[in-house]
Amino acid sequence: AVPLILHCISADFSLDGTIPPEIGRLQFLQVLNLSHNSLHGILPSELGHLNELSSLSLGANNFTGALPSEIGNLKVLTELDLTKNEFTGTLPSELGLLTSLMHLSVYTNMFTSTLPSELGLLKSLTELWLGDNQFTGTLPSEFGLLTSLMYLSVNTNKFTGTLPSELGLLTSLSDLSVNDNRFEGTLPSELSRLTSLLYLSVNRNKFTGTLPSELGLLTSLTDLRVNDNEFRGTLPSKLGQLTSLMHLYVDKNMFTGALPSELGLLTSLRSLSFSNNHFTGTLPSELRNSTSLTYLYFNSNKFTGTFPSVIKGLVELSVLDLSYNQFFGTLPSWIGDLQDLTFFWLFKNTFHGTLPSELGKLTSLTSLDLSVNEFTGTLPTWIGNLKNLSSLFLYDNQFTGTFPSEIENILALKNFCIRNNEFSGNLPKEVMTDWPCT
Predict the structure, then answer these.
(1) Do 229 and 207 touch, CB atoms closer than 8 A?
(2) N or C: which end of the chain has fewer CB within 10 A?
(3) Would strands 86-89 and 127-129 be described as parallel, antiparallel, or unpaired?
(4) Cα pseudo-dihedral 278, 280, 282, 288, rounded to 10
(5) DSSP string of 82-96, one letter each residue
(6) How big is the CA angle at 53 (ends 113 and 76), to the nearest 5 degrees?
(7) Are 144 and 166 in contact (CB under 8 A)?
(8) pTM
(9) Nearest of 200, 261, 209, 257 to residue 230 by alpha carbon
(10) Can you tell me the mean pLDDT for 422-438?
């Protein structure tokens, strides 16, 4: 009889238990895929006997313990996926022996300590996923040797120090995610060499200084996230060169000055967030060219001027937040053209006058906040047209008259506040029991 030689083992969603040490006897095994099971325990060191193994996938299980150093014996391994387990300890330096490795993912585990510099020997790597662990220390400068790398993610760890300038050598990189760490210092200007980069996320760190104007050279970039840092200064006008950009987040920093008019060149934009900075001046009229914008956050700055006419024509807007600024004047009638709006927030400005009847056309609204302004007049009956509203805040204005009974048409309303106005009469009792802020 011809002996059975296993070349591939693949099973998912039904296996329980541990991997037995006897697995090391399957010396001709080339593919071992046990992802998405309920396997647990430590990995047997005998895995290191599988000299023919090219792919090892153990993701989405409950494995624990340290990664055995014997894994470095798998010299023909091209894929190692340990995602979503409970591995602990340090990554063994023997991983650097896996010079055929193209895909390495240890995402979502409990690995600790610093990364071994030997990872820089994996020159065939195209994907390196280290996110969602507890790694510490700095990124090894040896990462600059991984010149085939296309995806590098180290997000959601405890890395410190500055980003190594050697990252600028990774010219094949399309995705760089270092967010949710403790990195500090300035962004290295060498990042401008990553001309294949599509996604750059450095948010939620402690980066300081100004944004390098050289970022404008990353003309393939579609997503730039620098929010939740300590960046200062003005936004570089060369950001206008990022004409493929779809998402730009610079919120929760200490940026100052006016927005550059060159932002109007970003006609592919879908989402734009400038909130929680110290920006001043009026919104650049050139932003009206970004007609695909869906999310606009200008809140918590020092913007001024009348209701921004640049917003007219941005008919795909779903979210518009102008709150906590110094805008003034009346609301324009063309606001009714923005019929995709679901969130519309004007809290704490100095808008005044009566509400235009065209607001009643915004029937997709789920949240409307006009509080802490100087609006006057009665609340129109068209408020009952906004049947999808779950939040309505009108407090601290100068509204007068009786409250329209049409409010009862808004069955979805859960959050409601009208205090500090000059309304007369009473709300229906069945309404007031659900709305504590009146």
Answers:
(1) yes
(2) N
(3) unpaired
(4) -40
(5) --SSEEEEPPPGGGG
(6) 75
(7) yes
(8) 0.93
(9) 209
(10) 63
Order the strands of the 278-281 sheet from edge to edge: 184-185, 206-209, 230-233, 254-257, 278-281, 302-306, 326-329, 350-353, 374-378, 398-402, 422-424
Q: Evaluate whether 265 touches 287 at the Cβ level (below 8 Å).
A: no
* Four-CA torsion 176, 181, 186, 191, nearest 10 degrees: -10
pLDDT at 425: 77
Find tokens 């990364």 and name the residue: 115
Q: Which amino acid is at 309?
A: S
Over residues 17-68, the pLDDT tens digits come to 999 999 999 999 999 999 999 999 999 999 999 999 999 999 999 999 999 9
Residue whose structure tokens are 């007031």: 432
Q: Could you tell me which residues are beta bridge partners of residue 304?
A: 326
Whether 182 contacts 159, CB under 8 Å: yes
How many residues appear in the chain?
Answer: 438
Query: What DSSP letter does each residue of 182-195 carry, written as one string?
Result: --EEPPPGGGGG-T
Residue pLDDT, tens place only, 81-137: 999 999 999 999 999 999 999 999 999 999 999 999 999 999 999 999 999 999 999
Q: Would you tell me how many other CB atoms lie within 10 Å of the CB of residue 171?
A: 12
* Bridge-based pairing state of the strands 223-225 and 247-249: parallel
Nearest CA to 296 among 286, 307, 287? Answer: 287
